[in-house]
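Usage

Read records sequentially. Each one opens with the input sequence:
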Amino acid sequence: MKEKPRKVWLEKRVQKYLDQGYGECFLRDPGIATVVQDALQKLEGKRCKFFAWVIMPNHVHALLTRREEDELEQILQTLKSFTAHAANKILQRQGKFWFNECYDRYIRNERHFRATVRYIENNPVKARLCARPEDWPFSSAWFRKFART
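and closes with the structure output:
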């Protein structure tokens, strides 16, 4: 049997701990989660297109494609900078809010795309935060069902 590369194993382990709610859970605050969700929506159509997202209590998942002229690192820097300042203001704190890393992936085909959307939107169900993906208000699944106009 072929051994999984260490990086893949480590990423899966980190994801498991995140799903179990370890670490700071600042995004559990609806005000902070709303700040992040609103920031995602502001980027939509301007610098990238979001296909799926979910804001969990201690992390965020997003499936997006960027405009050719925009680098992913710069999009994330913009998003993290704005939301960190706003969240720290709400929390009446200073200091680092987000980790520097992100785990990016290339989507190989339509099947992989659909599986990734399901994985992202099912994250709150897997973490036992809600019964169905569309029940989690900080997600693309909720927005698809209860679209704000």
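Summary fields computed downstream for this record:
- The chain has one domain: 20-145.
- The beta strands are 48-55, 60-66.
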